[in-house]
Design goal:
Elements lengths: L1 H33 L4 E2 L6 E2 L6 H9 L3 H31 L6 H13 L6 H10 L6 H24 L5 H8 L4 H30 L2 H6 L6 H11 L5 H30 L1
Antiparallel strand pairs: 1-2
């Protein structure tokens, strides 16, 4: 029995290692190319250059002066969208869990359906709506649009977490005289912190990589995806090492955020 279990464990570890290697190969190639560690195809046979260089990173801001501004725009947009989406989903799910609505489970399944719809199916009506309320091509309109896009997914994820929480602590707080605001702040929020942190990670990553809404709803606020499209579309002679350095720079904020959030989740587990 132990030998069979060890064999199954070894095969699972091998599969996960191969899957991880397959996923990391493009990132490793991009990282090496950003440091000019790549084969020189002008030579026959190609010879690898093994001398790393930071010249490509210094060329990122020179080649595309708006690149760093797009990084800051993406950071601001993803942060605001994450805070607004998780806050709205938190309050909505709390009210939904404590409601006696008979179609509650059906409504939760509708959240998943809404989260699965392609963005292009409603981005044009949303554009017209923002134009009528004078929020088109504004930062606040873009934040509200992305929050509306990701709120069903956040609510669906949080509902599965909230539905498993015990109501005994909340009932005890009510007996002690706590009102709804104190219950949410001092009882529900600390208990739901791991679920909120995990949901925030998902929303931040989705918002950081999102393309269609910043592309259709604004022209002034360039995010990383829209800026990269402009760079790749209008450059006739694209310097791939410089583009690789730009990709690595664009991945740094989200990598730092996910690493910090992971440490936070580990503290919650402890």
């Amino acid at each position: 029995m132990n030998i069979r279990r060890l064999r199954n464990l070894s095969s699972e570890n091998l599969f996960l290692a191969l899957l991880l290697l397959f996923c990391l190969l493009p990132l490793a190639w991009t990282l090496l190319a950003s440091f000019d560690i790549a084969p020189n195809n002008n030579l026959h046979p190609p010879v690898w250059s093994l001398t790393p260089s930071l010249n490509n990173y210094s060329e990122v801001g020179v080649t595309d002066p708006n690149f760093m501004r797009s990084v800051l725009s993406s950071l601001a947009l993803s942060t605001c969208t994450t805070l607004l989406t998780t806050s709205v989903a938190f309050l909505a799910v709390y009210g939904l869990v404590h409601s006696r609505f008979r179609g509650r489970d059906l409504l939760v399944q509708c959240f998943l359906i809404l989260a699965s719809l392609p963005v292009i199916s409603y981005v044009l009506p949303l554009q017209d709506t923002l134009r009528n309320v004078h929020l088109l091509d504004t930062f606040s309109g873009l934040v509200l649009s992305e929050a509306a896009l990701f709120a069903p997914l956040a609510a669906y994820v949080l509902y599965g977490y909230f539905s498993q929480l015990s109501a005994d602590i909340e009932d005890a707080a009510r007996i002690d005289g706590a009102d709804i605001f104190h219950i949410l702040r001092w009882v529900i929020l600390p208990i739901a912190a791991p679920g909120l942190a995990a949901t925030a990670i998902i929303i931040f990553v989705l918002s950081w990589n999102h393309l269609l809404m910043p592309l259709f709803l604004t022209g002034r606020f360039k995010t990383i995806p829209t800026q990269m499209i402009d760079s790749l579309s209008y450059e006739r002679e694209l310097e791939w090492p410089t583009a690789a350095a730009a990709i690595i720079v664009s991945l740094l904020p989200i990598g730092i955020f996910v690493a910090l959030a992971h440490r936070l989740l580990e503290q919650f587990r402890l």
